[in-house]
Amino acid sequence: MNDLTLIGYAPSVYTRSVRMALHAKSVPYTFTQVDPFQEDGQAALVGVHPFGRVPVLIHQNTRIYETTAILEYLDTQCTSVPLMPQAGLPRARVTQVQSIADNYVYSNLVRGVFSNGVYLPHLGMDANLSALNAGLAAAPRVLDALEEIAQEGHALTGDAVTRAECHLGPMIAYFSMYAEARVMVQSRACLARWCAALNTMDAFLSTRPDIVHQIEKDI
After folding, report:
1. What is the mean pLDDT of residues 193-213?
2. Which three-class secondary structure string do you get for the chain?
3. Which has fewest Cβ within 10 Å: 24, 114, 115, 218?
4. For residues 181 and 175, is the Cβ–Cβ distance under 8 A?
5. How confident is the model at residue 87 (pLDDT cuts 50, 70, 90)?
6. What is the per-residue pLDDT for 219?
């Protein structure tokens, strides 16, 4: 794949999802960083994303946004390192993990717990304790669903990088930076094993955002 540009924001879990896929496939690309939370960032996104979000993938004259669509495109355009199993049930489970990540993990574990329990305090900003507590309350059901999938052994096995690792990995990593959240993850054996395997994968380690190193210095 030639002439590939990723417009994104390094701390974004979804930007990291795409970067993990690109790294796993050894696809070269130009990374254009845009902060969607800043006014100049929003101005830069005009014309490339109708909702002013990241990531956006531009391949020659093709523009794609929404992470699931980007991962699908990369997997079909660069098939040498597939990120999706071939068999029906494993494919379904990977897709299921992606959907769980989008609908339940991001809002509760990332926006609720990480943002208010880790990120905002790191910046010296006031956290929304109600959102933090709501995220922690919702987390067990979400983690139990992921644990059940991991136990089954068709996805979240830690054997290779799939779209499940790309989609869920950055979110669980952020969530686990909060001490109480980390205990929740570690108490689920299969999910904990998957996290341990994830932390040995080059695609995951090489896309670690700088903000993680900065926060870890404060913990």
Report:
1. 96
2. CCCEEEEECCCCHHHHHHHHHHHHCCCCCEEEECCCCCHHHHHHHCCCCCCCCCCEEEECCEEEECHHHHHHHHHHHCCCCCCCCCCHHHHHHHHHHHHHHHHHHHHHHHHHHHHHHHHHHHCCCCCCHHHHHHHHHHHHHHHHHHHHHHHHCCCCCCCCCCHHHHHHHHHHHHHCCCHHHHHHHHCCHHHHHHHHHHCCCHHHHCCCCHHHHHHHHHC
3. 218
4. yes
5. very high
6. 59
Average pLDDT in the 67-82 region?
Answer: 95
Predicted TM-score (pTM) of this structure: 0.96
Section 54-80 average pLDDT:
96
End-to-end CA distance of the chain: 40
d(CA 64, CA 73): 8
Amino acid at 33: Q
- Report the C-alpha gap between 87 and 105 in whole angstroms: 26
Q: Which amino acid is at 41?
A: G
